[in-house]
Amino acid sequence: MDRLLFLLAAGLARGAVLALFALSLVIVWRAARVVNFAQAAMAAAAVYAAFHATAATGSYWIGLATGLAAGALLGAAVERGLMRRLPAHAPLPGIIVAIGLVMVLQAGLAIAFGPEHRPMHPPFSQRPFVIGGVPLLSPYDLFTLGAAAAVMAALALLFNRTPLGLRLRAAAFAPETARLAGVRVPRMVALGWALSAAAAALAALLLVPTELGLNPHAVDLLFVNAFAVAVIGGLDSPAGALLAGIGTGLLVSLVTGYASASAAPLAVLALMTLVLLVRPGGLLAAKEARTA
Amino acid sequence: MTPSPPRLAVSGLEVAFGGLTALDGVSFDVRPGETVALIGPNGAGKTTAFNAICGLVKPRKGTVHIDGRPAPARTTRLLAAGVARTLQGLGLFDRLTVLDNVRAPLIALRDRDADAKARTVLDDLGLTGLADRPAGALPYPERKRVALARALAPRPRLLLLDEPAGGLGPADIDALAETVDRLDCAVLLVEHHVDFVMRTADRIVVLDFGRVIATGTPDEVRDDPAVEAAYLGVEAAA
Ligand SMILES: Nc1ncnc2c1ncn2[C@@H]1O[C@H](COP(=O)(O)OP(=O)(O)O)[C@@H](O)[C@H]1O
Ligand SMILES: [Mg+2]
Fold it and tell me: Using CB atoms within 10 A of its CB, is residue B52 exposed (0-12), middle (13-18) or buried (19+)?
C-alpha cells in the first residue's frame, strides 16, 4: 500500500511533464498539421541555452527564463526558416524536414558541447517528504507539478478565452477562411510554433535534473513517450494530452515499480495499441471536421 | 461635380490557370447600395472573379478598385477596406462556436465591441439561441446563416456572396432574399437560383467562358438571346 502511494505520487509528477510535452506536440499539430519530430532536439538545444545561462549567472531562474526564450525563438525560426517554405497540404515534406533538423541539431549540439552528460541541479531538494512513514513527493516534484499545471492552465486560457486565442484557433482550423476574416495566418502559425517549442523546452527543463543529466539525446525518450501520449489523447486535443499524460505517467511509474524499468516502454506501447483499437482517433479525438 | 467612384470597379480582369483562361477581360461595377448578381454556367469564372477581387488569385492583367482605391493586395487587409465575403463551400470554423465564428473577423479588426456587435448580428439573423453551439454541428441552413452572419458582423460596405442560396429550401431562400433586400451595403452575389436572383438583384452581369456576355436589369437579361444560348450550352450566335 505504501509502495503504491509512493509510485502513484511519482507517476503524477512524471505524468505532468509527459502531458506538457505532449501538449506541445498537440499545439504544433493544430497550428500547422505536422507532427514535429524535431521537438526533442529543439528542446535539448533550449536546455543547453538554460544550462549555460545558469552556469554564467549562477541563477537557476535566469537559466529557466533563457531556456524558455530560446525554445520560443527556435520554434519561430524553424517555422519561418523551414516549415513555411514547404508545399502545403502534403504531410511528408514536413516530416522529412523535421527528421533532417533532428540530425543537424543533435550533431551540432554534440560538436559544440560534447556528447557527455552534464549534470543539471534542480532548484529544490529531491528528497521526498515522508508522510506517515511513506516517502511521497519531493519539493522538486511539487515544483514540477505546479509549473506544468500552471503553464497548461495558462495555455488553455490563452487559447480559449482571449482574442489572440480565437485568432490562433481560427488560423489553425480554417486558414483560408481566417485570411478572409482578416487573420494574419502565417503570423499565427509562427506563434503556435513558438508557444509549442517553449512548452516543450519547459518540459525538458523540468525533466533533465531528475535524470542522468544533459546531453544532445537527453529529451529523446520523453519525446517518444509524449508522442505516444499525444496519439492516445487524440493528437488534436489538449485535454486528451493532459488526460493521457497523467494516465501514462501513472502507468509507467507502476510498471517500473512493480515489474521493471525495461517493461515500461512495452506498457506504453500496449496502452497505445489498446486505445487505438477501441478509439482509432484517440481518446478525445474531435469528429472529423466537415469540409462541405 | 464628379460622381462618387463605384464601390467596386473591376476592369479588364484576366486570370489564367496554366493554359486555361478563367477570366478574359472582365469589367463591371457595383455602385453603393446596389445589388449586382454575377451569373453564368458552371465553370464560367464566377468564383474566380471573387477570388481575384479578394486577392486569393493573382490576375494576369486588369485592376480591382474599391471606392476608387486599388484593392489591397493582401487578403487580410480586405476587411479593413470594407469588403466581406462568404465562400461557396461555407468555410466555417466548424469546431468554434457560432459566436466565435462571428466574433473572429471583429477580433481580427481589433474591434473593442466584438462581443456586442457579434451578438447583434446573431439576433438579426435569428441565431441567438445557437450562439454557444459548435458551428459544425448545426444543420446546413443554419450553418449557411452563420456564414452570412460572420460576413455581416464587421458591417462591410461591400459584401460578396458566393452561392448564398445553394442547398437551401424554399422557405430559407425566401428568408435569405428578405435579409439581402434589407441590407444597405453594396452586394455582389453569385447564384444559380433564378428566382432569388430576379428578386434581389438590381443588375445582372452574365459570364460565360470567362467573358461578360450581357449586363442589364433582370428583365433585360432574361430576354437576352445570348444568355439563353449560353445557358442551353449552344454556341452564342456571333
Ligand atoms: N485553382 C484553380 N486551378 C486551376 N483551375 C481552376 C482553379 N480555380 C478555378 N479553375 C478553373 O477556372 C474555371 C472557372 O472556375 P470557377 O471560377 O470556379 O467557375 P464558377 O464559379 O463560375 O463555376 C473552371 O474551368 C475551373 O476549372
Ligand atoms: Mg463557383
Answer: buried
Is residue A93 within 8 A of residue A87, CB to CB? The reply is: yes
Residue B93, pLDDT > 70, answer yes
* Helix residue ranges per DSSP H, chain B: 46-54, 98-108, 114-124, 140-152, 170-182, 194-200, 218-222, 225-232
The ipTM value here is 0.73
Cβ of B42 below 6 Å from ligand 1 = yes
CATH (domain of A156): 1.10.3470
* Nearest in space to A184 (alpha carbons), one of A169, A165, A171: A171
Alpha-carbon gap, residue B160 to B133, rounded angstroms: 26
Chain A residues within 8 A of B114 when measuring between CB atoms: 163
Residue A55 lies in a domain: yes
pTM of the model: 0.82
Find the CB nearest A167 among B77, B108, B140. B108
> With respect to CATH, is domain B1-82+157-238 assigned 1.10.1040.10?
no
**Residue B56 forms contact with A (CB below 8 Å):** yes
A200/A219 Cα distance (integer angstroms): 10
| Gyration radius of chain B over CA positions | 18
Q: Which three cell numbers stand for residue B114?
A: 466584438
